[in-house]
Design brief:
By secondary structure, the chain is of the alpha+beta class. The protein has one domain. A hairpin with a 3-residue loop joins β2 and β3. The longest helix has 17 residues.
Length: about 90
Amino acid sequence: MAKIAAKMAGMDAIATFATLDDAESALDWIGLDAAEGDGVFEGELVGDDRDLLTAAIDDPDTPGPVRDLARTLLARCDAAGTETVPFVVAWAG
């Protein structure tokens, strides 16, 4: 995780949720692993995570904010063009 944290220094959150529980639930819904930091979850998209993002987007039961997060992460993945893509998800309170 130290390598990920170093990559994320100064990185803006890709999404901000109202509470820690909301942010954690969104990541859990999608199936992404992330480490809890100071007011943020830090993670890295790798390998099959693209499939998880697509499944969350396509699932009609996915809540809107979770779908929005999945779309944003998928767009970041496409734009990066790299094997791994770091991300930060924050919560407000």
